[in-house]
Amino acid sequence: MIFCIDIGNTNIKYAVFDGRELKATFRVNSRKTATSDEYGVVVRDLLKSADISKSQITGVIMSSVIPSLNYTIQHMCRDFLGLEPLVVGPGVKTGLNIKIENSKEVGADIIVDCVSSINRFGKKGVPLICIDFGTATTFDIISENHEFIGAVIAPGIKGSLDSLVNGTAALPNITVQTPPSIIAKNTVQCMQAGIVFGFAGLVNNIVSKIKKELGREDTFVVATGGMSGMIQKEVDCIDIVDRTLTLNGLRIIYELNGGENNVESRKNR
User: Fold this and answer.
1) C or N terminus of the chain, fewer CB within 10 Å?
2) Does domain 123-246 match CATH 2.30.130.10?
């Protein structure tokens, strides 16, 4: 079994794959001050809750957008799983051709999402857009030749709501969900309407402009992230939602780098 770790700004997502079969997924807060032991105890308990023994884990791969957490999580993998993780970054095979001004600026999360989108949904000669609704809302643009050619980065839904609440004296913290009407009748629904329908408009407009610049209305659009399903219902431009896109991308990259033949990932076993 392969243990995949996606370290995001807000959450860390874990997944266990048995071959290509997803056996379990977990999500915890990204705590920059937590120790490797604290993370290890959580991982141990999560695996136990899914009836998975750490002895069944034969490889680990991780991607991260929080460099300060990398050492902690790597240390946790060594101590609690007995494995050295493969870290998505320079020197790791991804198969992704990056066509932007500075390839070093491309985050590991974007690389993993693009690799997964191409492998899972790519069709010959058809461009792709991958939208990730995370701490930021990212639009990754992949050409008809399956090259990463650029991106759009917008605020995230939760971050926008937090800014609204923290920047005002009277507006409450709310649960983000679709209100019954755009013409809202109370404060909570007013805020929900602004967030949900506002982001739906943002998504529709950005995707429309990308397709126009590409000159390809047939561009395939895949979305992932916690709010992706809710936004898909309010737009007409998202073709499919895949909540496990990033985790599957990690599995694919692990396989590209030798899979079970990757001695480095097993050296502490």
Assistant:
1) C
2) no
Q: Specify the length of the chain in residues.
A: 269
Query: Which position among 37, 51, 109, 113 bears the catalytic label?
Result: 109
**Domain residue ranges of the chain, discontinuous segments joined by +:** 2-87, 123-246
Active site residue 109: yes
> pTM of the prediction?
0.90
Over range 17-43, report the average pLDDT.
94
Q: Which overall architecture, per CATH, does domain 2-87 show?
A: 2-Layer Sandwich (3.30)
pLDDT tens track for 79-119: 999 999 999 998 899 999 999 999 889 999 999 999 999 99
